[in-house]
């Protein structure tokens, strides 16, 4: 599958997730090696208005979404793959006034489960805010949405 098709597929998938629309998430990069999403810094993701620190729940949402959509980078045909398990290890808080990026890759695909790993970061992927590993259930083509709302 071409990188342009992977990018289009991931953008369309992300556009269907209402909470991601509200948060302003967008695809930064997508190819067969993985997916990077951007979570713009805004008041919506701040845990404490005095400090401006990003809420851990916003990071969790970013990374669950990034890992979940990264399955579209690894599969020849799109499948809906709900989260079975997600573990996030926080290294340090996200800094105020800076966007947060999430990168995820699928490192093992089985007939029933897809295993992902990734990082959340701000300025440098080598200085992660958090590490994540996740497992996602494969539902097959029959688990896919139908009609105009289905990502291609």
From TrEMBL:
SUPFAM superfamilies: Thioesterase/thiol ester dehydrase-isomerase. It holds the Pfam family 4HBT. The keyword Hydrolase applies. Residues 52-127 form the Thioesterase domain. It comes from Stutzerimonas chloritidismutans. This is PaaI family thioesterase. The keyword Iron-sulfur does not apply. CDD domains: PaaI_thioesterase. It is an enzyme of class 3 (hydrolase). Gene3D superfamilies: Hotdog Thioesterase (3.10.129.10).
